[in-house]
């Protein structure tokens, strides 16, 4: 059963990743630069002409496959983590080629490593030390029962590091027991109340419990966690608490938790993925809708080009 | 030189650097050179740096050394939050994030942690009055500015404020530029982004002259472009679209102050030429240099351009002139300089251990 839950965590993350609207934007990176420029120009056109027909990612003289529902950045970084999990972490990041796309924390950390700034400073001297790049990778470490800290501190610090530890513990607990409530309890043990992530996690749980249902909790989570001041919705202090709260209030049901996470537009890049990982670990692979697995299992290579075409189902077999 | 003179020089230098740097904010050094050559003439008014510094000074005048973060949060709630009814003009992310956190009922230090801009230079830009208030005592200046910082910043954003307040406190007692920068380092943990960045810019400045130049790199005409590039390479974060990072702005400002050898005009004009958060870099460099040189150190043509704050960023400070604010701060200081700074050790130009030593006492020691 725990093998099914380990694979549930990995495929659940990919399904959540695919469900959020930013996935199509990330996957459009596979298209020619002029095609994406056209998208930006259409956005400007809509602004200038006051038309509300907003451009969506589209293909002109380009293959259309990347724009179908499918996994993007988070699923690829999870797969990369699994493939390199036995390597020293800073060395694994150093070995990444120049063609990757990643969060600001990772891009800055790789620049730091190249300048001789080693962990933990590589993750600390970093404007996005707080983001959830390490929390996404921590799903791999947690499912395998390993400590995510060495990996996390390459790219993150502060709430970013706490988010990784909380996700790893929650996923490990969900894999072991299948209980979302126990997973949340485990995560809270490493989230001090005087940090933003610890404060927000407790607040998110409170408002989600009051709402009583994942979808019902969406406006309350938006009001409680988001100040809408900053432009990048990948802060671990927001996305990890949303994942914990929705996993718990859904009782670990992925098909209820992930759609709610995807409704939080500002957090839709990664909160659905983290939510999917937690709920997927609770319910196991068997609880994930077949159609979603079919759409989410094949990686696009939009962030780690070497992973284009890689089957996440196959990859996870050796870990389950 | 009296403390009053230094206080006036400090806040005038801050306002002048802010106003001079404003049009260069977020421009590349190459674009700044293309537009102005060297940017030396103030075109318009100051920005949030000046207005928030005036607000910070008012906190010190009211609460003195007893100032707590609860006092600061109360002042935000009474004097800033109610006036933000529409757009919060001239505010950075950290200020608006703080206002949102206060509106949610959070208290410091969570108000500074709940938003994602804890590291912004929003405290560093307004830290100078704390240094003015504690001449010769960088540690106390750093302790006081942290009370303000806990409301709006966290981590490196607090440290950036500590560094600037510590530097101004040292400069207020006549410390040399090198001693002043060492005082900034003395109030930072050595294991911090800000301390590492200050050390990095010092290493750049201490590099031997490049081949073909018989002069020190900082002084040779034409070599300044290469120096600007080297400073950017040392501390500028490349993969990030915003420039208000305290560890970056503070290190660049102190580098400018060292390049200008403490002269207000030389420090500020070099600083704003670095681009990035040019108004804040100019404000910090101007404040530290102005504290060292006093009011007469600020070019007369700049001083003439500094009028009362308009309140365009913080309505509560409208009409306040930085020189009046400086006089109010100085009224709380002894009329004659107290003990002169400890004799300044000759600074070993290659002695990076001394720069990096975060445990050393700043000039003047404890209160």
What does this structure look like?
The complex is a heterodimer of chains A (320) and B (367). Chain A is 61% helix and 0% strand. By secondary structure, chain A is mainly α. Chain B is 55% helix and 0% strand. Chain B contains 18 helices and no strands. Chain B has helices at residues 3-21, 29-36, 48-63, 69-80, 93-103, 110-113, 128-133, 138-152, 156-171, 177-186, 193-206, 223-235, 246-259, 264-272, 278-293, 300-303, 322-330, 352-356. Chain B is globular and about 55 Å long. Mean pLDDT of chain B is 89; it is low at 211-215 and 343-367. The A-B interface holds A 104, 107-108, 111, 117, 121, 124-128, 130, 158, 194-196, 199-200, 227-230, 232, 235, 237 and B 93, 96-97, 100-101, 104, 106, 109-110, 113-117, 119, 155, 191, 193, 196-197, 237-240, 242, 245, 247.
Task: Compute the number of helices of chain B.
Answer: 18
Helix content of chain A: 55-70%
| CATH fold type of chain A | ADP-ribosylglycohydrolase fold
Q: Characterize the largest beta sheet of chain A: strand count, sense, and whether it forms a barrel.
A: none
Radius of gyration of chain B: 18 Å
Could you tell me how far the N terminus lies from the C terminus of chain B, measured between alpha carbons in angstroms?
Answer: 21 Å
Mean pLDDT of chain A: 96
User: What's the CATH class of chain B, please?
Assistant: Mainly Alpha
Beta-strand portion of chain B reads under 5%
Largest sheet of chain B: none
How many angstroms does the end-to-end distance of chain A come to?
9 Å
| Average of the residue pLDDT scores of chain B | 89
Which of globular, elongated, flat, extended, rod-shaped describes the shape of chain B?
globular
Structural shape of chain A: globular
- Known CATH architecture of chain B: Orthogonal Bundle
Binding site for Mg(2+) (chain A): 269-270
Protein name (chain A): ADP-ribosylglycohydrolase
Cofactor (chain A): Mg(2+)
Organism (chain A): Nonomuraea cavernae
């Amino acid at each position: 059963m725990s093998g099914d839950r380990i694979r549930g965590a990995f495929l659940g993350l990919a399904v959540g990743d695919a469900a959020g609207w930013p996935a199509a934007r990330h996957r459009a990176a596979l298209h020619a630069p002029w095609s994406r420029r056209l998208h930006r120009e259409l956005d400007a056109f809509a602004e200038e002409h006051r038309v509300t027909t907003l451009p969506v990612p589209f293909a002109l003289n380009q293959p259309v496959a990347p724009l179908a529902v499918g996994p993007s950045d988070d699923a690829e970084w999870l797969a990369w983590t699994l493939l390199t999990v036995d390597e020293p972490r800073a060395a694994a990041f150093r070995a990444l080629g120049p063609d990757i796309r990643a969060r600001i924390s990772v891009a800055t950390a790789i620049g730091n490593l190249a300048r001789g700034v080693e962990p933990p400073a590589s993750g600390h001297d970093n404007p996005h030390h707080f983001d959830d790049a390490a929390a996404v990778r921590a799903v791999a470490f947690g499912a395998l029962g390993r400590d995510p800290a060495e990996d996390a501190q390459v790219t993150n610090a502060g709430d970013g590091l706490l988010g990784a530890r909380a996700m790893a513990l929650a996923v490990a607990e969900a894999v072991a027991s299948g209980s979302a409530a126990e997973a949340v309890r485990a995560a809270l043990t490493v989230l001090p109340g005087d940090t933003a992530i610890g404060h927000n996690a407790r607040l998110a749980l409170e408002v989600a419990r009051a709402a009583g249902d994942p979808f019902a909790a969406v406006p309350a989570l938006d009001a409680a966690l988001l100040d809408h001041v900053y432009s990048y919705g990948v802060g671990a202090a927001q996305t990890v608490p949303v994942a914990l709260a929705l996993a718990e209030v859904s009782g670990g049901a992925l098909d209820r938790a992930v759609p709610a996470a995807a409704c939080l537009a500002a957090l839709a890049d990664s909160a659905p993925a983290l939510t999917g990982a937690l709920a997927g670990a609770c319910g196991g692979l068997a609880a994930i809708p077949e159609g979603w697995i079919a759409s989410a299992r094949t990686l696009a290579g939009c962030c780690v080009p070497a992973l284009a075409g890689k089957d996440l189902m196959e990859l996870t077999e050796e870990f389950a | 030189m009296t403390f009053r003179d230094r206080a006036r020089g400090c806040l005038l230098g801050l306002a002048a650097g802010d106003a001079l740097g404003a049009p260069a904010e977020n421009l590349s050094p190459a674009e700044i050179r293309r537009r102005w050559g060297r940017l030396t003439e103030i075109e318009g008014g100051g920005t949030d740096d000046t207005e928030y510094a005036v607000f910070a000074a008012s906190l010190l005048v009211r609460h003195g050394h007893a100032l707590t973060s609860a006092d600061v949060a109360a002042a935000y709630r009474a004097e800033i939050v109610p006036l933000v009814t529409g757009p919060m003009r001239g505010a950075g992310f950290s200020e608006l994030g703080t206002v949102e956190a206060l509106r949610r009922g959070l208290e410091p230090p969570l108000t500074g942690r709940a938003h994602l801009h804890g590291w912004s230079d929003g405290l560093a830009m307004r830290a100078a009055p704390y240094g003015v208030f504690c001449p010769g005592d960088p540690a106390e200046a750093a302790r006081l500015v942290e009370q303000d910082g806990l409301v709006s910043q966290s981590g490196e954003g607090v440290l950036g404020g500590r560094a600037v307040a510590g530097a101004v406190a040292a400069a207020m007692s006549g410390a040399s530029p090198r001693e002043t920068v060492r005082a900034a380092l003395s109030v930072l943990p050595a294991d911090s982004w800000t301390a590492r960045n200050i050390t990095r810019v010092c290493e750049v400045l201490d590099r031997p002259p490049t081949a073909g130049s018989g002069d020190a790199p900082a002084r040779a005409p034409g070599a300044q472009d290469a120096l600007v590039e080297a400073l950017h390479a040392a501390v500028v974060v490349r993969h990030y679209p915003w420039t208000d990072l305290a560890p970056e702005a503070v290190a660049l400002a102190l580098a400018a102050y060292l390049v200008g050898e403490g002269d207000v005009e030389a420090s500020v004009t070099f600083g704003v030429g670095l681009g990035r958060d040019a108004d804040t870099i100019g404000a910090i460099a101007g404040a530290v240099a102005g504290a060292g040189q006093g009011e007469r150190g600020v070019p007369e043509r700049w001083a003439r351009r500094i009028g009362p704050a308009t309140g365009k960023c913080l309505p509560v400070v409208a009409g306040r002139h930085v020189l009046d604010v400086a006089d109010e701060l100085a009224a709380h200081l002894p009329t004659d300089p107290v003990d002169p700074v400890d004799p300044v050790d000759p600074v070993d130009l290659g002695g990076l251990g001394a720069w990096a030593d975060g445990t050393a006492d700043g000039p003047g020691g404890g209160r």
